[in-house]
Specification:
There is one protein chain. The protein is α/β, with parallel strands linked by helices. The chain folds into four domains: 5-135, Response regulator (Rossmann fold, 3-Layer(aba) Sandwich), CATH 3.40.50; 143-313, P-loop containing nucleotide triphosphate hydrolases (Rossmann fold); 318-392, Helicase, Ruva Protein, domain 3 (Orthogonal Bundle), CATH 1.10.8; 396-467, Orthogonal Bundle (Arc Repressor Mutant, subunit A), CATH 1.10.10. Helices cover 46% and strands 14% of the residues. It has 20 helices and 18 strands. Helix 10 crosses helix 12 (301-307), helix 18 crosses helix 19 (439-446) and helix 19 (439-446) crosses helix 20 (450-459). The longest helix has 26 residues, at 110-135.
Length: 476
């Protein structure tokens, strides 16, 4: 697990920051400082903090919005809000949302501040311990090369761990872009075969007339152009693991030969009379419903059951909303190094747009979006401006507002009102869609109070029920 930093100090007042730094040093605590909300979100995405001292009044985004971000993304950081006397009502409201406590400034009792920090640290460690016991063992946010901390991705981590001492055949099922090859590599890296080859083949990417030779090899003269013996990928993987991606595309004529390798550990090169023994672990993957292919006679039932010894189902990215900030910063760090640009963070509104989008292309699409944003970014912060229009909704570019009429024919005030009406309606609709009609989750993602969010739903005549799955419970 990543080593936690004790304290995150978020304040734009340098004199107050120095006071907190001195207190942290006296308490021998490790700490980081953020001067605004964007920097705080970046640090929370990259590191683990036990406690955050966060000013309520910050440039751009408030301390309450940072608290909402922490709670929405299941970040296990205790928040102590720092407030002026006039903002105590906001601090009390924030405690109801999950803040640990609040401090009023100016303060003279440094001992009380230290005690409050100690109690928050104690609370964090207790909660963390309970969380670890619930999981039985701790997983990092980065497991091999797989990034995430949501419950459904942790279940994948646990399955990979359970496979570490075995050579069992594994079937990975998931939509395109969900990370099937990364999971296969993680299984191999934690297996007893990890020092041996890991060989990848995409069954759907190679022409059928060449696929048999690629998999099993051929001997000289087996067909026109075969001027020498050729070792196939199964033999190359001897002692290690072969990853058969998109095995649902494998022709029936080759399925029986794969079955022979699984059952007997042997193969025959194309044009050869000799049987060759191979010791190889097979990990297969598909985005298709193999049982449906079996019923339709397109996939051998005996091969299906041989492959499906251990089944790992990968979630869609839209089912892993709390992982999106982690993944986004993972790709941000990757591409800022690659293109040599000093892009440090993602603005809160841009992150909200990332989390509101449905991601039909899953993790691969998110990676492409972040790479594009880093390339286009001209500052240290990825903003809404660098995101593609498909993420922002047509209204963000006034397309929806201009659909009824050309905005230029109105005065500024009327044009702005029309554009904002279109934006608000589209934005609320996208949030409800991303949260399947759950008003509580959608309002949290928007950083809004639930009652105010419901007022907007009513104002723009949006039916939240239309976004719910059939049979889903009502969000009351």
């Amino acid at each position: 697990m990543l080593k936690s930093t004790n304290l995150l100090i978020v304040d734009d007042d340098q004199s107050m920051t120095r006071v907190f730094e001195k207190i942290a040093q006296e308490m021998k605590l490790t700490f980081e400082v953020a001067k605004d909300g964007n920097e705080a979100v970046r640090l929370l995405g990259e590191k683990q903090f036990e406690v955050s001292l966060t000013d309520i009044m910050l440039p751009g985004f408030s301390g309450e919005q940072i608290l909402d971000y922490i709670k929405k993304n299941n970040i296990k950081t205790e928040v102590i809000l720092v407030t002026g006397v006039g903002s105590i009502e906001s601090a009390v409201s924030a405690i109801k949302k999950g803040a640990y406590d609040y401090l009023t400034k100016p303060f003279d009792d440094v001992a009380r501040v230290k005690l409050l920090i100690e109690k928050a640290l104690e609370r964090h460690r207790l909660v963390q311990r309970v969380y670890e016991l619930e999981l039985q063992h701790t997983h990092t946010e980065k497991f091999e090369e797989i990034v995430g901390k949501s419950q459904n991705i942790r279940e994948v981590f646990a399955t990979i761990d359970a496979l570490s001492g075995t050579s069992s055949t594994v079937l990975i099922q998931g939509a395109s872009g969900t990370g099937k090859e990364l999971v296969a590599r993680a299984i191999h890296a934690r297996s007893i075969r990890k020092t041996k080859p890991f060989v990848v083949i995409n069954s759907g990417a190679i022409p059928e007339n060449l696929l048999e030779s690629e998999l099993f090899g051929h001997v000289k003269g087996a067909f026109t152009g075969s001027v020498s013996d050729h070792m196939g990928l199964f033999e190359e993987a001897h002692g290690g693991t072969i990853f058969l991606d998109e095995i649902g595309d494998l022709p029936l004529s080759l399925q029986v030969k794969i079955l022979r390798v699984l059952q007997e550990g042997e193969l025959r090169r194309v044009g050869d009379v000799h049987i060759r023994k191979v010791d190889v672990r097979i990990i297969a993957a598909t985005h298709k419903d193999l049982m449906l292919l079996v019923k339709n006679g397109q996939f051998r039932e005996d091969l299906y059951y041989r492959l499906n010894v251990i089944n790992i189902g990968l979630p869609l990215l839209k089912e892993r909303l709390e992982d999106i900030p982690l993944l986004a910063y993972h790709f941000l760090n990757k591409y800022r190094e690659k293109v040599k640009k000093d892009v440090q963070q993602i603005s809160i509104d841009a992150m909200q747009a990332l989390q509101a989008y449905s991601w039909p292309g899953n993790i691969r699409e998110l990676e492409n979006v972040i790479e594009r944003a880093v390339v286009l970014c001209s500052s240290d912060t990825v903003s809404m401006q660098e995101l593609p229009s498909k993420l922002l909704g047509e209204s963000c570019y006034l397309v929806a507002g201009a659909a009824d009429a050309d905005l230029a024919q109105f005065n500024y005030k009327d044009a702005k009102n029309r554009a904002m009406h279109a934006f608000n309606k589209a934005y609320i609709g996208k949030l409800l869609k991303a949260n399947r009609g759950n008003i509580t989750n959608a309002s949290s993602m928007a950083g809004m109070d639930r009652s105010n969010f419901k007022k907007l739903i009513k104002k723009y005549e949006i039916d939240a029920r239309s976004f719910k799955s059939k049979g889903e419970l009502r969000d009351v």
